[in-house]
Amino acid sequence: MPLNNYVAIDLGATSGRVIVSSDARRLDEVYRFKEYLKNDNGVFTWDLDKIWNNILIGLKKAVEKYHTIASIGIDSWGVDYVLMNQDTPILPAYSYRDSRTKITMEEVHKIVSFNELYSVTGIQKSLVNTVYQFMDDHKKGRLAQATDFLFIPEYFSYLLTGKKVHEYSMATTTGLIDMKTGQYSEMLINKLGFPKQLFQPVIKPGNIIGSLKPEIAQQIGSNATVVLPVTHDTASAFYAVDVDPDSVIISSGTWSLVGVKLKQGNNSTLSLNTNFANEGSKDFICYLKNIMGLWLLNEVKKKHTYSYDEITNLALTSTYNEVFDVDDTSLLSPNDMKEAICKLLPANNQPKTDGDLYRSIFRSLATTYKKVCEQLSENLHQRYNRICIVGGGANNKALNQFTQEITQHEVIAIPMEATTVGNLKIQKEVIR
User: Fold this and answer.
1) Can you tell me the mean pLDDT for 356-381?
2) Which of 39, 93, 301, 361 lies 20 to 30 Å (CA to CA) from residue 406?
3) 248-257 pLDDT, tens per residue?
4) Is the predicted pLDDT of residue 1 greater than 60, yes or no?
5) How far apart are CA 359 and CA 314, in angstroms?
6) Who's near 423: CB < 8 A, 6+ residues apart?
7) Residues with catalytic annotation?
8) Residue 407: half-sphere exposure toward Cβ, Cα within 13 Å
9) Is 292 helix (H, G, I), strand (E, B) or coil?
10) Residue 12: phi, psi to the nearest 5?
11) CA–CA gap between residue 266 and residue 282 (Å, rounded)
């Protein structure tokens, strides 16, 4: 009996990939694309047409190579969405890197304090959260024009099938999902004055969305079933990883997601005070902290011609040990990342070489990992002995070495594309 070919469309914040697999282990990246984040004089938006056109190209390439595909699943970064007026997107689709939430966070908390918000949702305080983006759209009248909204993976699944869904793992990144019900909180929506009709019932991953529209099937050369995976990339990565209870998971990419799997969420006072998120997945809660990740490295690297191996060697041969706060808001979307980092380092001990700068980035990340691991132990009354690193950052030898040195935990680096594996794992469970 021939094996099914499953296609994972993994949309990262810096690049997208179309990957084919028949067993969720051997992965064949048939297409990669990038540069769909637009910066128009400091206004950050997503180029939806570019993403869509590249998805179609990738699917065509998948069919050309494998002839038929059984199913497709799409995942992406969290919090960002597309407002819809019936079948028409209301543009632009803003990126979480846009600065529009710096004011609206305060305005949300004048109506609903963060403590109250956290008691309902268990989602960490972060400028990027959807709830603060919604408030900006509400003030500008964009929500009033909308009949619905779709998160990034849901929007492209809609273009493929004509079916609209709201998936649970992604919905938790709004900061509006009630931890107890797994649905949008009517109380919070009413208090904030958001239009109720936008918030449709949320469904769990592992469902079928529908078949490709006939014109799409004809265009790519194959029919396929579109499956609803764990659409939030972090939650998908956590779903892919089987670890012992005494292991911390770090999904290391543009962002570093540091946490553990819990059967039930934890929105205790300790969790509130240490700003941990309870993000949904398929059968568990991702109890984690979202911190800045290799975005720092990649933005600095843009101005250099070093390979990643050369950066590793530079960082390991440097003796510079100053660190900075990787979560400082000035690092979210600076014009010059090196300059922004240097402003956070001691004026009397600035990095003198590129190796010093790279070493500082890695050691600052590792120092933050240590702090988060200590908070996990305290909040959950659990001792953790090892750290399991997955994602692109698992290949970063310097970061792994500094993480083991600074945290004093055993570090197990699994250079697995965990988000993609989690996506494909769901598809294989649904389509046999």
Assistant:
1) 98
2) 301
3) 999 998 899 9
4) no
5) 8
6) 8, 10, 73, 74, 75, 229, 230, 236
7) 233
8) 33
9) strand
10) -90, 170
11) 17
